[in-house]
Design brief:
single chain; 284 residues; mainly alpha; 3-stranded antiparallel beta sheet; 10 helices; globular
Length: 284
């Protein structure tokens, strides 16, 4: 009588380490692509308003520099030029998150993650940017300063409130972020620290460095602070994801694969943006 042989479970052909590397590359490409999409909408609307109001300036790969003297500005111009970008980003962010939550979060693929990063970048372009601009008294800080007319103390309070809102939205967004991933390996609660490192920290840091390097020598402190303020969204997301036991994913999860199309599109976006605005484009 032959002894019974134990039946071993099938071994996955995919290497878990490889899955996380793929997740990091895909997430970074999506982070960069979403950033350029939101940044283009923000800066493009700002340029359109500047031309409508006949405000002179230069548009380079990292920022818009106006050449008007201080005495040439008026309230409508300040509110229009510095307020239109955050306003456009508000509608983009709401629309992207609504699309993600109502239509895409139960679907397989990377498009839902792209929508979510668009919403996150739009959030940062409003609240994170306001806090960053308040540190240097530029950009969207002018909107609160000209609207309130109550001095620096009121401006500081508004900036701090904006930072707190960004922190709160980051905490609330952790559930949505967890639902944006398909890989069962990446989603396992036991792998949660590796997940946030590869899909949150690395895109933020690696993507930010990539964006900065592709804009040299035009890369400005203005844009650097905006990228840095994304951390106000990232760190609450990390804490929420690490502590949330949710580890389910879509029923028809696809095997992990490198989205070379998205990687190429992200690189092309950076190259085209740099070439289109170098040398800087005059606004008249």
């Amino acid at each position: 009588m032959q002894p019974e042989t134990a039946t071993l479970p099938p071994v996955s052909a995919e290497n878990p380490r490889q899955k996380f590397l793929i997740a990091a590359l895909n997430s970074t490409a999506i982070y960069v692509l979403a950033y350029y999409g939101v940044w283009a909408a923000h800066e493009g609307s700002k340029v359109a308003m500047s031309r409508l109001l006949h405000i002179r300036g230069l548009w380079d790969p990292s920022r818009i520099v106006y050449t008007l003297a201080d005495r040439e500005w008026w309230q409508l111009a300040v509110l229009g030029v510095y307020g239109i970008g955050p306003l456009v980003c508000f509608f983009i962010g709401v629309a992207a998150f609504w699309w993600y939550w109502k239509r895409e979060r139960a679907q397989p693929g990377l498009f839902k993650l792209l929508l979510l990063w668009v919403a996150f970048h739009a959030c940062n372009a409003i609240f994170g940017a306001l806090l960053a601009d308040s540190l240097r008294q530029e950009g969207s800080w002018y909107v609160t300063d000209w609207l309130l007319r109550m001095g620096n103390a009121a401006d500081v309070v508004v900036a701090l409130v904006a930072g707190l809102i960004q922190l709160g939205l980051g905490h609330l967004g952790s559930v949505a972020f967890l639902q944006a991933h398909d890989s069962h390996t990446v989603m396992k609660f036991a792998n949660r620290k590796r997940m946030v490192l590869n899909t949150l920290m690395w895109p933020w840091m690696g993507g930010g460095v990539f964006i900065g390097l592709t804009k040299l020598p035009y890369f400005s402190m203005h844009e650097a602070l905006h990228l840095l303020m994304m951390g106000l969204l990232i760190f609450p997301l990390i804490l929420g994801c690490v502590n949330d036991p949710f580890d389910s994913t879509v029923k028809r999860a696809q095997p992990s694969h490198t989205a070379w199309g998205l990687v190429l599109l992200a690189v092309l976006s950076a190259v085209v943006w740099r070439l289109a605005l170098s040398p800087p484009v005059p606004i008249q």
